[in-house]
Design brief:
alpha/beta, 8-stranded parallel β-barrel, binds SN-glycerol-3-phosphate, 21% strand, binds magnesium ion, globular, TIM Barrel, single chain
């Protein structure tokens, strides 16, 4: 079995050092020698693809603003860093094309997680993401698309026979192998707190398995013992986490 990603992946860049999912976070990941990052992309009301986790702007102190009601010109005025620390005040939101430019610039591996905006149509979102990806033509071994939304992943697979896909589940269902067969994923990703040793063994017999979000050595070591192939980590720069990475 080949593993699409390493054992330690920068979750949203390096969000313990810089505001998540921003240029600063990606730069910090690259400068700390992190080779793969996981980054969330979602869609705003005008169809622009913005690098954000949620369908609202609550994180940035704008709790009443839903992404579906704003456009790119509005999003370009949002301060995506001040909530994290005054040093990052004025950090702009990134858009998908800018993210891919950064990934190329820093030669990073990218797990792009498509966060389907529930206020908008799924197919429109998947097609828009796939259009941008085809334009940038990142080597397939350096890119992995994931989503909690299986219908979105099925559409990604229809668009591309060869893109690497990871299926995200909070809890891995009993029926996972049947559920994902037509998507042909390269990996399964799940919530570490919902995983058991027995389930990890069952999955890793068929697919590489990655877990979110793991920030401590005890959990990381336990998961590696269970055969888990890698984790999404907010502090992937920490020497004690890196020391556990299998050679
Ligand atoms: O892709 C792994 C992880 O990021 C999924 O959960 O909520 O952190 O995007 P979330
Ligand atoms: Mg994510």
């Amino acid at each position: 079995m080949t593993y699409p990603m390493p054992a330690l992946i920068g979750h949203r860049g390096l969000p313990s050092a810089a505001p998540e999912n921003t240029r600063a976070s990606i730069k910090a990941a690259a400068e700390n020698g992190i080779s793969w990052i996981e980054i969330d992309v979602t869609m705003a009301g005008d169809g622009s693809l913005v690098i954000m986790h949620d369908p609202t702007l609550k994180l940035f102190g704008l709790p009443d603003v839903a992404l579906v009601n704003v456009d790119k010109s509005y999003l370009q005025t949002v301060d995506a860093g001040g909530w994290f620390h005054a040093d990052f005040a004025g950090e702009p939101l990134l858009f998908l094309d800018q993210l891919l430019e950064l990934v190329i610039q820093y030669n990073l591996g990218l797990n792009l997680e498509i966060k389907i905006n529930p206020d908008m149509e799924t197919a429109e979102q998947v097609n828009a993401v796939c259009d941008v990806l085809s334009f940038f033509n990142i080597p397939h071994e350096q890119l992995l698309i994931s989503s909690f939304d299986l219908s979105a992943l099925a559409l990604v697979r229809q668009r591309s026979r060869s893109l690497q896909i990871g299926v995200l589940c909070e809890v891995i269902p009993e029926t996972v192998f049947e559920d994902v067969a037509t998507i042909r994923p390269v990996s399964i990703h799940c919530d570490q707190s919902k995983l058991t040793a027995a389930l990890a063994r069952r999955i890793t017999a068929q697919y590489p398995l990655y877990c979110y979000t793991v920030n401590d050595t005890v959990t990381f070591e336990k998961l590696l013992d269970w055969g888990v192939n890698g984790v999404f980590c907010d502090r992937a720069q920490a020497p004690e986490m890196r020391n556990l990475v299998p050679r």
